[in-house]
Amino acid sequence: MKLTAKQKIQIQKIGKKYKLKLILLYGSYVKEKQRIKSDLDIAILGKESIKGKSFSKIFSGMENVFGNNEERELDLKILEKIDALFLYQVMKDGALLYGSSFDYWELKTYAIRNYWDNMPIFKLEEILVNKYFGKYA
């Protein structure tokens, strides 16, 4: 996804105003595989915990940058206290829109390491799900 100069400036302002550490684009738009009505996936990480009112204001700011309508819904996620698999999916292909490269790569490295550390649990979960559905399907 190509950003305009205006969008880049708006993103910088949002990041600074709400003390964000990172703003990332992930999902189909970063892979350039979006379709009609694909949602636009944005992930944020604050320097401090992001609470409800701040989240609403950040979401509103992002709506002004990217839009939010029936044709392209804005999906904004907070990268705080999320599961290893989701964080890995975001960081695997995520593109940095705001923040330092160091913070981005530090989180990406953590996400990959955490994913691999949890791999045995993911495999066990898959076995149990297959066993359950094999029994009741």
From TrEMBL:
Residues 10-101 form the Polymerase beta nucleotidyltransferase domain. CDD domains: NT_KNTase_like. InterPro entries: NT_sf, Polbeta, TA_antitoxin_MntA. SUPFAM superfamilies: Nucleotidyltransferase. It holds the Pfam family Polbeta. PANTHER family: NUCLEOTIDYLTRANSFERASE. This is Polymerase beta nucleotidyltransferase domain-containing protein.
